[in-house]
Write a structure and sequence with these properties.
Blueprint lengths: L1 H16 L5 H10 L10 H12 L6 E3 L4 E3 L4 E2 L28 H14 L5 H7 L16
Antiparallel strand pairs: 1-2, 2-3
Helix pairs in contact: 2-3, 3-5
Length: about 150
């Protein structure tokens, strides 16, 4: 019995570690944070990119060639945020841990800087899975929530 309780507690802790937002939740937050039409890209472009980068997991961290990638947009620590990566530039002027917040404010703020300086082409996933495709499907059915 104690083993079963311990296993359940561990499962609960793991589920708290990585939160996955719903598509419409992401669309609503992105719209509130000013991404709809930002730099000429529709809201669907940002939702599509976030999906292919992280499957909408706000706490996702993965190793990259240089540094690590953080949060819903998988923003790299070598260039954009601070996590102690040697030679890191921290152009977004924030700790990488800020990119793991469920409110997505820091992620959107940093993504805006990336898009302003490099465009959405900075994300390979946008180029491979979103660019030139119908983006309305990423926000379909979310209108009443946005």
């Amino acid at each position: 019995m104690r083993v079963a309780i311990a296993v359940l507690c561990l499962m609960w802790l793991c589920s708290c570690e990585s939160r996955r937002l719903g598509r419409c939740d992401v669309a609503r937050i992105f719209k509130q944070e000013g991404l709809d039409g930002f730099e000429g890209f529709s809201l669907g472009n940002y939702v599509c990119t976030a999906y292919w980068e992280s499957k909408f997991k706000t706490h996702k961290v993965r190793s990259a060639d240089t540094g690590k990638d953080y949060g819903i947009f998988q923003i790299n620590s070598f260039k954009w945020c601070e996590d102690g990566t040697p030679g890191g530039k921290n152009l977004c002027k924030m700790p990488c841990s800020d990119l793991l917040q469920d409110d997505l404010k820091a992620s959107v703020k940093c993504a805006k800087l990336i898009v302003k300086t490099e465009g959405l082409k900075s994300w390979d996933t946008w180029d491979s899975y979103c660019k030139g495709r119908k983006m309305s499907r990423w926000v379909k059915g979310c209108e009443e929530n946005c």
